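User: For a reading group we're discussing how well predicted structures match intuition. Take 2-polyprenyl-6-methoxyphenol hydroxylase-like FAD-dependent oxidoreductase. Before you show the prediction, I'll give you the sequence so everyone sees exactly what went in.
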Amino acid sequence: MYRPEPNRILADAARDAGARIRFGLTVDALDDRGDHVAAHLSDGTTARHDLVVGADGVRSTVRRLVGIGTEPRPTGMGIWRVHTRRPERVERTDLVYGGACFIAGYCPTGPDHHVRVPGGAGAPARVDRRRRQARPGRRRSVPAARADRRGQRRGRGP
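Assistant: Thanks. Here is the predicted 3D structure of 2-polyprenyl-6-methoxyphenol hydroxylase-like FAD-dependent oxidoreductase, as structure tokens, for the group to look at:
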């Protein structure tokens, strides 16, 4: 399904249920008052809600505000995805993995559409062994990436 489509479906269902939708605002603070939650918004207003759902992405402000401090960590890989019309012959997901920085393939997402993952290196990474995090930069060879993965499986970090 094309990504904006679920947004439209959810927004339409919320409106049909009587919800008022306000765009262009962010949540600055949440105050649990027992029988409701007060959401302090970026325009200075406070909204009263029975339920707050944190569906605000991978770096979720709502998740942080309720005390969940988990943050995503860079892996050194990025993927391009292209949402296109699906040829009739594409009936299943096929992906090719060519090492730590290469994935190519396609995945049907509906009767008329599919997602293509073009082949090629993702975001090549250089690993800073002191900080143990991937940084954009020098490409690592496939054998070096495999050696890193073997070391990780044996309990030794990259």
